[in-house]
């Protein structure tokens, strides 16, 4: 995934990535009509409720004082390049502008995503998106609703805060999901565990709590128990920018943990249904 794709798909509002002349080809693919049908991104479609490939479609470019200087349907000549221009000159022409680009779902072209971007001398910044990052992400995590129950709202809030440029606050809700998961696993299995409540809640560090539940919680969380430390450090020590940078990967980590729990829940349901079928059919065939 290129840095531009990462900005479009994984970053919230007012997030930015640095750009240099080395990024010219990728910028050119995104911003030039002659290439626009070749620029594709993979992201969640809120209408299909599946991850889909989206293809770039309409493009409008705005220059100084937000004046439209190019629309795909009005001035196709804008995109013809002077082959005598240097790379620096071509790259410079893309700076200090606003770009409005829509992408269409390749499964159903009525399903669209719109991005608003601005370029400065050093960065490209996402200033708008519809449907929002939060809307796309919340639909994408709906499969965890029955598993998380009350904590589903925590996950949704974390995503919503990140989508509005709030990093530290989003970490608070991600950390709560891990805390609640660990505490629930202990309460559900404490009769089998040889750990007294006082020891578990007041004597063990949180990483030790996770380790003590090995075999009861997803292996991924046990193997990566430092996730909790990262979230805690983010809340108390890291900057907003650092938290926003780390958020997508930490969200992915939470999803991996939940995927494991969800798979086990689905398997238990299937096993229960099959056991019922075997018992009933055995009786019928006697």
Strand/helix succession: HEHEEEHEEEHHHHHHHHH
Per DSSP E runs of 2 or more residues, the count of β-strands stands at: 7
Distance between the termini: 60 Å
Principal-axis shape: globular
Report the β-strand fraction as a percent range.
15-25%
Give the structural class. Answer: alpha+beta
Helix content: 40-55%
How many distinct domains?
2
The DSSP helix count reads: 12
Largest sheet entry: 7 strands, antiparallel
The radius of gyration is 24 Å
Identify low-pLDDT runs.
73-78
Average residue-wise pLDDT: 87
Description:
The protein is α+β, with helices and mostly antiparallel strands and 286 residues long. Strands 1, 2, 3, 4, 5, 6 and 7 form a seven-stranded antiparallel beta sheet that branches. The longest helix has 46 residues, at 240-285. Mean pLDDT is 87; it is low at 73-78. It has two domains: 3-131, no CATH class; 141-273. The protein has helices at residues 3-10, 24-31, 87-93, 133-140, 145-148, 152-163, 168-189, 197-203, 206-212, 219-223, 226-236, 240-285; strands at residues 16-18, 40-45, 50-62, 68-71, 98-105, 112-119, 123-130. Helices cover 51% and strands 17% of the residues.
Report a brief summary of the structure.
The chain is of the alpha+beta class. It has twelve helices and seven strands.
For this entry, give a set of tags.
single chain, about 290 residues, alpha+beta, 2 domains, seven-stranded antiparallel β-sheet, 12 helices, about 50% helix, globular
